[in-house]
Amino acid sequence: MPEGKLCNRTPIKTDEQLKLTLGDKGGKQYYEEMNHLDVDSEKLWATIQKTMKSRLKTWLEICAHCGLCAESCFLYQVNGRVPEQVPSYKIQSTLGQIVKKKGKVDNEFMQMCMETAWSKCTCCNRCGMYCPHGIDMGIMFGYLRGLLYSQGFVPWELKIGSGMHRVYRAQMDVTTEDWVETCEWMAEETEEEWPGLEIPVDKVGADIMYTCNAREPKHYPEDIAEAAILFHVAGENWTVPSEGWEQTSLSMFAGDWECCKDNVQNVYDAIERLKPKRATGTECGHAHRATVIEGPYWVGREDGQPPVPYVHYVEWLAEALRTGKLKIDPSKRIKEPVTLQDSCNYVRNQGLKDVTREIISYIVEPGYFVEMAPTKEHNYCCGGGGGFNGIGKYREQRNMALRKKMDQILDTGCKLVIAPCHNCWDAIRDLEEEYEIGIRWSFLKPLVIKMLDVPEHLLPKDE
Q1: What does 13-37 look like in DSSP terms, one character per residue?
Q2: Could you tell me which residue ranges the Cysteine-rich domain spans (predicted)?
Q3: pLDDT digit string, tens, across residues 319-366
């Protein structure tokens, strides 16, 4: 069978196809169809010839097979240090073989590649730091994922996630109406405790345009309210766009290159329409990477920059604390051992390691902050990045992957973990549910709100 009804080489572009694929609980029919999916070798090789640039070709050719990347990979460490988990082996046995055979590979091989690409690598890019030749396996695995997606060999959940972006312009079924109504609802819910608070929608010329993760309006609307509270207390002139508010990119995890570009363009169009002085996004690592680090290149911006300065939430928060727009009541600072999870996507991939620690210096009593080991850009992936968190087919492998972060946290002796990233937050939550080590985890927003020194004029008036 060349292509199935659900598992095929065609992206999900309609609500009908999306609902049909969603209705296949757990992807049972989808994966059965995948077992019979033909490989279009001519198209695969043509795609490689068109898209594989000199950097990737050089990396494949110069790998010395020295094995120095092995210990850098947390998946190698937690899986018995078997050769099959060495980063260089993983890429040479998949992408390397596809190129060597000029795309003439079969279904069984492509399914092996799929399992390797999504259950043996999170694209955390840590191995690239330790390769003597500077080979970045994370970038190469991202490319491999794109080839697999183009042939229909992609996990069920990520085919759906990318389809959500195409149909709803968000990673979940949140319409423009849903989003605006959620903003109005959160403003109303918060107004009594924070008089005058607003969540302005489509305000032209604001100082800040705020974007978020679709999981927030869908499942955690309080996160939107918390962002609004901090902007309100800081006195910021801000807005959210009615369209182009979704900053995340499950299509990046899926390898849907075309959709990656569209996602970023949606956000950039909102910037061009509303003309803010700058933009900031929520506590999400991959959203920042997709929109700010990779995004400008996806949409062809020659300067490699978004239309306006676009900072991660930790940058805005550190600035607000540094300049006194937000002030902390010292008596309310955290006075228990606390550690910090470094997000791969804005710490290792953009170098914001010291920004999060500046925030820590304001909100944690001196002597109570405990670094993980290793830390900062050398820290390990949470165990669920790169889409790993959401793929049911590989849940057992993902749970094993969490053990590295579990050991790091246990070694700190801390019961509270600050995780300013959605994927990290999810992975650490799941870690506790799976292994019950007795920890708590939190984004930055709720912690900061609890310890704010709020100006008198912003407090509710006594009746």
Answers
A1: -SHHHHHHHHTSGGGHHHHHHHTTP
A2: 338-424
A3: 999 999 999 999 999 999 999 999 999 999 899 999 999 999 999 999
Distance CA 6, CA 300 (A): 32
From the list 387, 343, 341, 422, the residue with the least C-alpha distance to 122 is: 387
Rounded to 10°, the helix 422-435/395-412 angle is 90
Q: Which tokens belong to 51?
A: 């898209």
pTM over 0.90: yes
Q: Taking each helix axis as running N to C, give the angle between helix 137-150 and helix 54-62, from 0 to 180 degrees, rounded to the nearest 10.
A: 120
351: Cβ contacts below 8 Å, ≥ 6 apart: 377
Tokens of 394: 């590989």
Q: Residue 208's Cα: distance from chain center in Å?
A: 22
As a whole number of angstroms, the distance between CA 159 and CA 187 comes to 34
Q: Where are the beta strands (DSSP E) in 216-287?
A: 238-239, 278-281
Residue 389 main-chain phi, psi, to 5 deg: -55, -35
Rounded Cα distance, 423 and 250, in Å: 12
d(CA 24, CA 290): 29
CB 66 within 8 Å of CB 132: yes
